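R.M. (postdoc): so does anyone remember the format we settled on? I'll just put the structure tokens first.
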């Protein structure tokens, strides 16, 4: 009896299915991790932009004695934060920040105290609700969104804003 010499030049169907399944699982895990990293990066950008804006507003206050008396849409629709008519050559912030997604609840809102023009809050929402700095639940009248993150002028704490403020 003569034995046939079998040369195997490929993989079996089962081996291919196992490898494809493993690659699929690893791809899904990588996509989830990448998505989480993107959210954290956008949240870091939000925090950094609001901190820079807060510092620019404080410099503005030091020169003018008040914070800009603008509603939120007018405030963020301008491209730069300048000193106004009497000090228009002073640029406090070269580019006004905009939320990386800027949709739905992912927007920035600026509120100032209309009675004194000497206090402000800037609100934002973070995508990662488990972030240690996403610790609030602040509402702003007329916006209809509850915010979890914000910065304020040094003489004010973050708080809810009613319609009369």
């Amino acid at each position: 009896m003569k034995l046939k010499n079998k040369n195997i030049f490929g993989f079996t169907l089962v081996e291919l299915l196992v490898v494809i399944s493993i690659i699929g699982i690893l791809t899904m895990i990588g996509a989830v991790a990448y998505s989480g990293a993107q959210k954290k990066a956008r949240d870091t950008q939000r925090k950094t932009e609001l901190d820079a804006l807060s510092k620019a507003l404080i410099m503005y206050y030091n020169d003018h004695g008040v914070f800009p008396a603008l509603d939120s849409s007018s405030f963020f629709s301008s491209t730069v934060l300048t000193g106004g008519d009497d000090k228009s050559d002073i640029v406090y912030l070269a580019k006004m920040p905009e939320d990386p997604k800027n949709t739905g609840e992912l927007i920035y809102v600026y509120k100032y105290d209309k009675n004194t023009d000497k206090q402000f809050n800037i609100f934002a929402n973070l995508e990662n609700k488990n972030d240690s700095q996403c610790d609030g639940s602040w509402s702003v009248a007329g916006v209809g969104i509850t915010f979890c993150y914000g910065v304020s002028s040094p003489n004010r704490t973050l708080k809810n804003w009613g319609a009369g403020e």
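R.M.: ...and that's the designed sequence above, right after the tokens. Also worth knowing: The chain has a mean pLDDT of 86. Residues 83 and 89 are 7 Å apart (CA to CA).
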